Amino acid sequence: MESALPLADEFLLLALRENDGRLLINSATVRVGLGGAFLAELWLTGRIGLDADQVVVQDASTLDDPDLGAALARLAGEARPRKPEWWIGRLADNDLVKRRLARLTEAGTLDAEAFRILGLIPSRRYPERDAGPEREIRARLTAALDAGRADDRTTALLALAHVCGLTGRLFGISGRELRERVERVTENDWAGKAVGRMISAAAFATLI
Question: What's the gap between Cα 158 and its chain centre?
Fold first, then answer.
């Protein structure tokens, strides 16, 4: 079944703990995952393609989602083609998570609850108000793992969730079995691989 949510919002729902709305992974990884989701969404809608591992704009027509529209405009305005991971780093800005959380809150999928970290620092958490969308997302991913194949949208989401460290938390399998089942579905997914390279490079940078 086709989801009504953009890929970025599907990914973000998976990255939030349902009961208290806290992130399951660090915010930097979430931003990188969202950047990859934006590129994948633009590809799924036929706005971009890949030419010799470079992103090229094929259709710069208007999009309803303002964040996706702004991302497409940036790609179209770049002087020369760039690799997917270069674009992911540019699209994953600090306010992106907040904007997507606000979108899901306005839609009634999440609640926004104010609290203070250590009783001092104002913050917000986003528990689920409507669990239906995430249940549908998880069902699609589970069906993909069971079948060993999926449509392009589900494949992209599974790849992004896996490289960002979410699949081990979502399914009752782990280790080698999980890796092999995910790889069987996502073997040809380029967006997930680009996100994985970004995360690996960031992890390496902390060691030098």
Answer: 9
